[in-house]
Amino acid sequence: xxxxxHHNHPKHMNTRTVRRWAYEADASEYxxxxxxxxxxxxxxxxxxxxxxIGGRVRxxxxxxxxxxxxQASDARKAS
Length: 79
Prior knowledge:
The chain has 79 residues and is of the alpha+beta class. The protein has helices at residues 24-31, 35-44, 61-70, 75-78; strands at residues 2-8, 16-23, 51-53, 56-60. Strand 1 and strand 2 (16-23) form a beta hairpin.
């Protein structure tokens, strides 16, 4: 389940951001990567950034999108 969490930053109480969280299974589906692969990456310290909140692994969808973009290769550089 992907859900939104309104979060007030303590330094800027008037600034309101919306974080979109995904649980591990949802992140796996979103990235189209098997959960065991995602877990292995976490254990090795690679892959997208994650958070452990309340004992459960969660991913911010903005972090997943940024990670996807960082994986892009530019074929023009290879020539």
